[in-house]
Specification:
The protein is 36% helix and 28% strand. By secondary structure, the chain is α+β, with helices and mostly antiparallel strands. The strands form two sheets. It has a three-stranded antiparallel β-sheet with strand order 1-2-5. It has a two-stranded antiparallel sheet with strand order 3-4.
């Protein structure tokens, strides 16, 4: 790992343009379109799952509900009621690494 920080969108577009022999502006438009498609797939109208270039599979997982319960105020230690949270069909995004990524990480 040569860099300690993530690439910016411009740096990523430049790297893609160098590897694919396209103009940096075109590469940036492709990255924007890719992000738009991924967001549409994960939105409420989409199927809720998208595979990102054979590296990562993202899906929207349901979030379980939680009943009202008693807890403690961390600052004072006094008992307090923690509100209930309703269940949601589309709660959190879950990312799973696919074989291509796992192979790179294991080597």
């Amino acid at each position: 790992m040569s860099e300690t920080r993530a690439k910016t969108k411009a740096e990523l577009a430049r790297a893609v343009s160098q590897r694919s022999n396209v103009a940096p502006k075109d590469a940036e438009r492709v990255l924007e379109a890719f992000a738009d498609v991924a967001l549409a797939e994960l939105s409420a109208d989409g199927p809720g799952v998208v595979t990102l270039l054979g590296l990562v599979r993202a899906d929207v997982a349901p979030q379980t509900g939680r009943a009202e319960h008693m807890g403690r105020n961390p600052a004072t230690g006094e008992p307090m009621t923690i509100a209930a949270r309703p269940a949601r069909l589309r709660g959190k995004v879950r990312l799973r690494s696919l074989k291509r990524l796992r192979d790179v990480l294991e080597s």
